[in-house]
Amino acid sequence: MKHTVATQGDRLDQIIFIHYGTLDVMNDVMMSNAHLMRKAILSTGDIVYLPDVSVPEQSETIGVNLW
Q: Which residues contact 46 (CB under 8 A, 6 or more apart)?
């Protein structure tokens, strides 16, 4: 399992999208990061575990909206 270290102001959804290119794996990542579930904004130094999950193939999209 890989991991990354958050910087001030990072959000878990941002890190997931940057690493996996999709938010479809968010549940898997959240299960590996129970220690971050009460944080909307991560703190500098927070460890985010990035499990090895298969990423579903993406159909061509025009844009991505995280919210």
A: 5, 6, 10, 36, 39
State the 10-residue block means of pLDDT for the chain, 67 residues long: 95 96 94 94 97 76 64
Nearest residue to 28 (alpha-carbon basis) of 39, 16, 36, 18: 16
In this structure, are residues 15 and 48 in contact, taking their beta carbons and an 8 Å threshold? yes
Helix or strand run (H / E) with residue 50? strand 47-50
pTM as predicted: 0.79
| 8 A C-beta contact, residue 53 and residue 46 | no
